[in-house]
Structure formats: structure tokens, C-alpha cells
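Give me C-alpha cells for this 214-residue protein.
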Amino acid sequence: MNIATPKEIEKTIIALRHNHFDVFFAETATKAQNIFFQDIFPALTVQTVSWGDSETMKATGVPEKIREYPDIVTIETFGEKMSRPQKIYQRRQALLCDLFLTGSNAITQQGQLVNLDMIGNRVSGITFGPKNVVLFIGINKITPNLEAAMHRIRTIAAPRNAMRHAGFRTPCHQTGVCMDCNSPDRICNVWTITEKSYPAGRIKVVLIGEELGL
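Here you go.
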């Protein structure tokens, strides 16, 4: 797996800023948490927070720390004790929150976010609904262009994502590559390409100088 060079990282940051994303760089996941709580969170007016599934976001520990704020309502969308209807209801409510946190499956050196979802709740939160969005993205997600981004998702991110969900029966469990299947457990259903942040600065990217996530 190729990891972006310092030159490619800088090119990506410049492109993201040109595309109206606010961008922060953190050397590690721990420093990403510090940047979030020191530079991003205090500047926002936040009463409600939710998040989409993201291994990179989890690595920062940000959700756990947000739960410690007594005046912040967290809209929980995961949990072994939650029924499927409860999860779907909460994920719809999450689209109305003040702040939505998640990651991205890939990012191009042209400053585009590329994502693939099962039901679309994560990409919906990125594209519309929440007032503010913060994405935590490891530098292993940087790709040269859209074609490479989609290839990365089909050959790395999507199969690994399916494999970490117990009980999902998809061909990629065996092949390690998306087979464009028709399985009821298929997670490759909703593609999004975010060319620019609108309004400017609504989406904030914390790029982390580590190999994180899927």
C-alpha cells in the first residue's frame, strides 16, 4: 500500500483549501484530538453531535471525550443493544445535528473526497444536513486522482469494511476485492464525490500523518 509523500500531502492540502475545505494537519491521532478540541471545537456553536462509522475517527478518541461534555447532546447511532429500527431512526436524527464527525474512504490530490456507503447515512451527513462536518483522514487515504480513489475503495476499503461486520455474507470476504455482487449484505451502494465544501468551511478536514483506518 502506497503512503503519500510529504510533497503529495502538501499538494493535497493546497487543493483542499482551494476547494473551500478548512484543513488542519496533525502528525498523529493524539495530536488530531488536540487540534480538534483546541482549534476547531471552541470556534463552533454546538449543542448536538453525532458521527458516522470511521475507524480513523475512533483512533483519535474524540467521540469518547465529547461524551464527557455535560451540555452536549450526543445522538448515538451504534450499539449492540440498539435494534435495527432504533439505529435507522437515530441516523435520521443525526442529519439534524450541529456537528457531524466521520472519516473518508479516499481523498484525491485534487482535493476531492470520495466515499462509498451501504445505506448512505454517513455520506448524507457529509453532503447535507449537519451544520458542521469534521473529517479525520489518514494519509494512507490520499490517492493521485478519482480513478485511483475508486480503485482503492473497491480493492481495500470496501472489502475490509465488509469483513469487520460479523455475519455479512459477501463475495469480497473470500476474494478481498469488490465483485459487484448482488448480496443482501452488499455495502457498496452509494457513491459520493465531494468536489468542494459548500458553504465554504462547513467541512473541515483533519489530515493525520499516519496510516489509519481502512
